[in-house]
Amino acid sequence: GLVPQDDILHKELQVKTALRYAAKLRFPGDTAPAEREARIDEVLRELKLDIHADKRITSLSGGQRKRVSVALELLTKPSLIFLDEPTSGLDPGMDRDVMKLLRGLADDGRTVLVVTHSVAELALCDKLLVMAPGGSVAYFGPPDEALNFFGYETWADVFTAFENSGYQVGVP
Question: In the prediction, which pLDDT does 171 show?
């Protein structure tokens, strides 16, 4: 599944209606309507969207809209889900909520890949891959060891070092 940075949602539709259309498009043609509805209800519960099922997407918060975007992808039970900046534009509380949701998906056996510039909730990740300017790998490993690896105390310092043309991995 792929969840792009910008939500691709029909914002005037109700949440459940949007999921119904997505299910009709994505499920095999011989899927029974009752089977589609059961899967939609399952995904709504899994993402704690069941209480918002009858709300228009336009009335939801940014984090809730992001959960609807994830729900669209989870309908087909992908084993791998890729998210591009899923917390972009969210406040720190919603950032944490979305990252905890993704942690839960991983704990349920899915492989979850997240591209992000938000560093607040990196501890929820199993592995961290930091790319340096030009696309080279600067770090791959446990999130709690990354700052020590870079020789800095804050991620702001790491980002600043990346901006400097003389940056070398592991040398502040």
Answer: 53
17/118 Cα distance (integer angstroms): 31
| pLDDT (0 to 100) of residue 2 | 82
C-alpha angle 26/63/70, rounded to 5°?
20
- In angstroms, the CA 44 to CA 42 distance is 5
Contact of 161 with 150, CB cutoff 8 Å: yes
Cβ-contact 1, 82 below 8 angstroms: yes
Distance between CA 63 and CA 61 in Å, rounded? 5
Is 129:138 a contact under the CB 8 Å cutoff? no
Cβ pair 81, 3 in contact under 8 A: yes
pTM of the predicted model as reported, rounded to 2 decimal places: 0.79
| Closest C-alpha to 112, from 143, 142, 73, 149 | 73
Helix (H, G, I), strand (E, B) or coil at 23: helix
The 10s digit of each residue's pLDDT in 1-29 is: 888 777 788 999 999 999 999 999 999 99
What residues in the chain have per-residue pLDDT under 50? none
